[in-house]
Design a protein that fits this description.
This protein is mainly alpha-helical and 270 residues long. It is 47% helix and 7% strand. It is elongated and about 90 Å long.
Amino acid sequence: AAADGGTGVAGVAGGARGTQGGGGGSSEGGSAGPTEAESLGRTAAEALAAGKAVPDSVLASLVARAAAAVDDDRSGFLLDGFPATPAQLAALEKALTGYEPVVDAKKKPPQSRLVAPPPGADAAPPPRRPGLDAVLRLNLDADLARRRALGRRLDPETGTVYHLEFAPPADDADLQDRLVPLGTEADAEAQLLPLLQAYKDTEAAMETWCSALGLYRPVDAAAAAEEVAAAAAALVETLSAAKAEMVEKAQAEARAAAEAKAEADAAEAE
């Protein structure tokens, strides 16, 4: 979205199925109480009805359940715009794998040699195989993000969205007359500034924790949409190839271990 005039500043992608954690279970059976899915849905609905944000843990659990339902013959899944904060990243990782990284969106204070470190400072390192394969961050400066977010026009007859600067409509009088703004420029500007500031507030922390989990993959989003898409696709292909090689190696090691055990058992039986 960041590359074609949309309001998106960052893109998030993942490709690993999350089936190790507690996100996919339910309480179905003889119990008369609601299932886990029903409880999650009710909590989300109540938050939305009250005009509040859905809790991170609920969002993460819903995403994990959907990820676990991806068919084996599918190539994985992609998330757009989630997780967007360190807290959401931690909640999603816990829902996918059961691992709970210690994250803090605020800047960590300098450590003193005279005072004991705060709780969690000596937390275990992140797991080698997190629930996501990668987090692609579309790097874009605030000014370009603002210009892309503004100036969009909709053709109500065809549903086509244009951008006055980056994807201008054809020089057609009838088309020009039909175009209407997507909302008002003033409203878009007012909504965009807090979004950009919120992203900036969590940008460093997200990079730190995505890197700690081995997920961070930056993409230059200042280029044309086709170039950005090609760069992202190349990253995904590289990751997929590396993952396939890792799986093949693990399977080979498992076969070798099984054969060695079988030979040892046979020798002991003799």
